[in-house]
Amino acid sequence: MTPRSSTTGRSTATSKSRRSEMETRYAFELSGEHPTIPRSEACALLEVCSSGHGVVSDRERCLVVEARDLNLSGLGARMAMTHRVVEILAETEPTPDGVSIAANELDLPARTYKVRAKRLGKTPLGSDDVERMVGSVLWKRGYKADLKDPEIEIRAIVTEERVFLGQEVARADRAGFRARRPHMKPFFHPGTMLPKLSRALVNLSRVRKGERLLDPFTGTAGFLVEAGLMGIRGLGVDVQEDIVRGAKSNLVGLDGTLIVGDAMRLPLNDDSIDAVVSDAPYGRSALIQAGSRDELLEGSLAELRRVLIPKRRMIYVDDRPVGGSIEDSGFEVVEVHKERVHRGLTRQIFVCR
């Protein structure tokens, strides 16, 4: 039986063929691990990986965009807090009739298929309902299901207001993040940021492959590990020689350089760094090495302002609301995110330029 299309009924779906030939519509399935960082990371990656984009809609854990020339392999290799990206082939209201009509509009090759749906938040339809509805329509059109080894996997993202049908084009390497948890690396120190958040913050800096990223308080080199895995040249500075020696074992095989130095006196030329990601030290170590945390903050910000190329991004993390000090040093704070670690620690994440 040859797969066929149906023209019965009034469609509420929006098919890909009706959109601009220059732009493709994508749905980003965002992680629920943080309320604001996943969306910001997705938008930052769109700036890096496409020649232009615009946000179409922003729903709970689902960001829909139109993008031109999106580098899908580069996007998938970098994503942290986006689970997957689906190229939208049809979309509709979350009703049985709407889903059926949208499934009829799918323009697919004559291959075996499997349908997988993800429900995001409170929705009128469950993921099982959508899988069953879409599968039923495709079967009636002559397509053959193969749940074990399909040639095509249709993805459905179900939100409160819309259902998006399409094909997955990028997926985050979630297993890789688990394998790089701090205690599983050669050199470990308590309080180290998890790799998924580290990757997201590197992405927020909008640094590109081959560019130079600086971490002036490198610690165990978590930011540089994630940067190196994305083809970014990392440079880390730390005042403690034993920390630098240990962190080098975490960077084996990656393009990263570590030096013993003072963040308030960086051995770098003016305007020589493409991006900065920094998690300022908390507690006694900062007091011992700098005299006071305020002195360390002021001195390091002045140096980062000096070495960072104008209009490029700096991500500055502290446990205090230091936005005023950052702007006093000459940066503009464009985003602020908060991440609660435990009762006594909430990270303040400042995206600056």
From TrEMBL:
- Family membership: Belongs to the methyltransferase superfamily. Trm-G10 family.
What protein name does the entry list? tRNA (guanine(10)-N(2))-dimethyltransferase
Describe the location of the THUMP domain by residue ranges: 69-169
Q: Where is the composition biased (Low complexity)?
A: 1-15
The subunit structure is:
Monomer.
Any stretches that span the bilayer, and where are they? none
Task: Tell me which UniProt keywords the record has, alphabetically.
Answer: Cytoplasm, Methyltransferase, RNA-binding, S-adenosyl-L-methionine, Transferase, tRNA processing, tRNA-binding
Source organism: Methanothrix harundinacea
Q: Which reaction does it catalyse?
A: guanosine(10) in tRNA + 2 S-adenosyl-L-methionine = N(2)-dimethylguanosine(10) in tRNA + 2 S-adenosyl-L-homocysteine + 2 H(+)
